[in-house]
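Notes from the 1:1 (GR / supervisor)

We went over the backlog. Supervisor wanted to see one worked example end to end before approving the batch request, so GR pasted a single chain during the call. The sequence is below; no edits were made to it. Supervisor asked that the structure be written out right there so they could see what the output format looks like.
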Amino acid sequence: MTQRIKTYNAISPIGLARLPHSYEVGPEVADPDAIMLRSADLHSEAIPESVLAVARAGAGTNNVPVEALSSRGVVVFNTPGANANAVKELVIAGMLLAARNIWPAAAFTAQLGSADNDLAPTVEKAKKQYAGFELPGRTLGVIGLGAIGVLVANAAASLGMKVLGYDPALTVGRAWQLSSAVEQAGSLEDLFARSDMVTTHVPLVEGTRGLVGADQIARMKPGATVLNFARGGIVDDEAVLAALDDGRLHAYICDFPSASLVAHPKVVALPHLGASTAEAEENCAVMAADQVRDYLTDGNIRNSVTFPNAQLPRTNGSTRLAIVNANVPNMVGQICAVLADAGHNLADLLNTSRGELAYTLIDVEGEVDEAVVRALGDVDGVIRIRAL
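Structure output shown during the call:
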């Protein structure tokens, strides 16, 4: 069966090449089975009922109506870690921009008159005001130790910095990846109080909005620097500007410009360059395409933002049922009862859940009649079912 993929934005052709040639792919595809996008805003879009999956070629999904789609049984994917190195490099660059006052120093030399052939006296006289500091021995606080945060923490440690990390949801896998030189902060308050620089690497959700605000900045050392390459809204811009004006903060380096930020001489606001490398765009597109193909073909889920991971090898000679259902008692029992009443034998089964949602993969020996599929769809709590 031909699958239809609607694309928003320019998705790397290297990623799209991972999709089978039989797929219909492009921005004008009607009634798509899946959507692939980067930064396009889907909140104002009417998502067709045909859509089974949405894949964001990037980590953040603020531009996707995740909850509304999940309630319809639509799986939303992201690509965690695919752009991690690109963001890590920009964060390190931001630290150096702040430490060595590179931005204002470059602006100074850019405005020197070209008519004066001998700039040396002017440069020598002015350079003292742009004197900075070195990173070794300084303390970096890293909030959020996911794919990006771990790379930033390890890179900073390798540069000779003292590194504090804070992440109450730190996974075992990420903990294994952390350098042994990274110290765990006891709390956010502890991290802010001990850090010369703080960088954020958490998603923008209700609990992280304004995470770096006036109270947190007040705990920081005088002359500290804040970096935000995660999401706008995590840092309170007004609190930062006030701290820059009164001298508590040395600089604010971020990837999310606003009218008030770009006007301030101690702010370096970049035009959302975090993942803007050819390598990161290719990595994200490849991961997104692979996830969509695996889900449409075999029902497997990897890196969904609301559904659990679910991967089950196909059983030869079977029909696979991919079922999105509410995470309530006896769902698997009801599903199996319908199959048993129809005389079907199960070859393999996987059931897993995440929050209020559950996902069930069942390999049934032989073919499954459409009437049986409809009966399964009528089970109370089943949100969506596919026979593959």
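Supervisor's comment: The chain has a mean pLDDT of 95.
Batch request approved.
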